[in-house]
Design brief:
The complex is a heterodimer of chains A (about 300) and B (about 170). Chain A has two domains: about 45 residues, no CATH class; about 200 residues. Chain A is about 80% helix and about 0% strand. Chain B has about 170 residues and is mainly α. In chain B, helix 1 crosses helix 3, helix 1 crosses helix 5 and helix 3 packs across helix 6. Classes of the chains: A mainly alpha (about 300), B mainly alpha (about 170). At the A-B interface, helix 1, strand 1 and helix 2 of A face helix 1, helix 2, strand 1, helix 4 and helix 5 of B.
Chain lengths: ~300, ~170
């Protein structure tokens, strides 16, 4: 005769039964496979076609954006001859250029690109990097291209969008930098090809300045033009009298100022403006050359070369 | 690995044996018990995949088990098979500590099959699944007094089967 307790003990004996570890593992594997498959299926099937399209588009866009940002960051300091340089020039910069809509934006961006190329030339020259003459020619070509883009944009833009003074200001700076380039190029390379390109760029800039000044003088009032000329002369005078200006810089500026005086005596306002702009370009060129020379000297000092 | 998958694996490791035991002692069919146990976990996974949360995992699993068992006996009156005990695929843990012997358990399975399903259910849940009366009441959606009474009646009914058919050994 079994008691209630016996029955309970018999029943509790059932707790000792369990699946064999092999059976348990086998069922577990099957379950996990099915669960994993449903997870994959969930990822594929839940979004509606529209959501899916948007999601895919967003993911693609995000991926491209990330790639673009990474590429931009990684390539920003690359120089000609380095693997990422082509990516920087032909992908990153061209993609950014597409976002520049207004003439002001295009001009500013092309100037920035031109400055980048000049900066690269400076890097190569100052660090004496192992670059080929072709690299320098390539960079000079690029400078020419950006300058041409700036000139074209300025020509195509009316004076209401970009005033003559602003156009002249841009061209003056371009021309100043190019002047410096001519001198630096003569010192660092015997490549006639490179010099030809720079001369071509310089001519294009000079022509653009002459044309713009001519339009400025003919279209603006005499008072306004005279006032502009007066401002430019004052600016140059301040530069000459500044204590930081070196003697050779002062001499070169004063030499050009003779042309301004001559034009003023002849009452040739256009020629006077062009002459004073040439003085300013010389100042720009001196500044740029000084930067390059300082940079080279710094590098030499770091390397312990006396 | 997906967090849900990690959770699911842990859930299986914790409750698989108990759910299998539950089905096995109610059906007496090891193979079918394994299939139903697998189904319980699959249904749980499908529920989770609908971004629904489970507050009481154990109770949830037994509720699914209860529903599956109802479906099972509706479609097929399962018979406890003594042969199934001879099948491989399960083992006895800590056999030395067991009260009685393997043969006694075989006989218990036979006697369980003789009592009403409502008694068998609560006895299995209380003594084999080791659930509290409160938990059984929640899973079966009944009040605790009814469950307690049914357990007592179940014990009495099981005892009677032993009295009617004394041990052969």
């Amino acid at each position: 005769m079994k008691t209630d307790n016996d029955i309970e003990q018999l029943l509790m004996g059932g707790k000792k039964f369990s699946l064999s570890s092999h059976e348990k593992a086998s069922i577990k594997s099957a379950l996990l496979v099915q669960a994993s498959q449903s997870l994959t299926h969930e990822k594929r099937s839940i979004p509606s076609p529209w959501t899916s399209w948007v999601l895919r588009g967003s993911v693609s866009f995000a991926s491209l954006l990330i790639m673009f940002v990474v590429t931009t960051y990684a390539s920003q300091d690359s120089l000609p001859g380095e693997p990422l340089y082509a990516m920087k020039v032909h992908v990153v910069e061209e993609m950014i250029a597409l976002t520049k809509i207004t003439p002001e934006e295009r001009v500013a961006y092309n100037i920035r690109l031109m400055e980048n190329r000049l900066e690269e030339i400076k890097e190569i020259v100052s660090q004496d990097l192992d670059t080929t003459p072709e690299d320098l020619v390539y960079l000079t070509d690029q400078v020419h291209e950006h300058v041409t883009d700036v000139i074209t944009t300025l020509e195509e833009t009316d004076s209401e969008s970009i005033s003559y003074e602003d156009k002249i200001e841009v061209l003056k700076k371009l021309s100043g930098v190019i002047k410096a380039q001519v001198e630096i190029a003569k010192e660092i390379t015997e490549s006639t090809e490179m010099l030809e390109v720079i001369n071509e760029t310089q001519e294009a800039t000079t022509d653009a300045i002459n044309d713009t000044v001519e339009d400025f003088v003919s279209e603006e009032s005499v008072e306004f033009v005279n006032e502009y000329l007066s401002d430019q002369i004052t600016e140059v005078g301040e530069y000459v009298s500044a204590s930081t200006t070196k003697k050779f810089e002062r001499d070169s500026v004063e030499y050009h100022l003779l042309d301004v005086d001559e034009a003023l005596v002849d009452s040739d306002t256009k020629e006077a403006i062009i002459s004073i702009l040439e003085v300013q370009q010389t100042i720009e060129a001196n500044n740029y050359k000084t930067q390059v020379v300082d940079s080279v000297n710094e590098t030499l000092e770091e390397e312990g070369v006396e | 690995m997906d967090k849900r998958l990690i959770w699911f694996e842990k859930l299986y490791d914790t409750h698989a044996d108990a759910i299998w035991r539950h089905f096995y002692h109610r059906l007496g069919d090891n193979e079918r018990a394994k299939e139903l146990m697998q189904e319980v976990f699959l249904k749980t996974w499908q529920y989770v995949m609908l971004d629904k949360t489970i507050e009481n995992e154990k109770a949830f699993l037994y509720r699914i088990a209860k529903n599956l068992f109802i479906n099972e006996i509706r479609t097929k009156k399962s018979q406890a098979s003594l042969d199934s005990l001879e099948e491989t695929g399960f083992e006895v843990k800590d056999e030395h500590s067991m009260t009685g012997t393997h043969a006694e358990h075989t006989e218990l399975m036979e006697h369980l099959d003789m009592i009403k399903d409502s008694y068998r259910t609560v006895l299995v849940m209380r003594y084999i699944d080791d659930l509290l009366v409160k938990e059984i009441a929640f899973i079966l959606d009944e009040n605790e007094t009814n469950i307690s009474m049914r357990i007592k009646r179940g014990i009495a009914a099981l005892k009677q089967t032993y009295e009617r058919r004394p041990q052969t050994t």
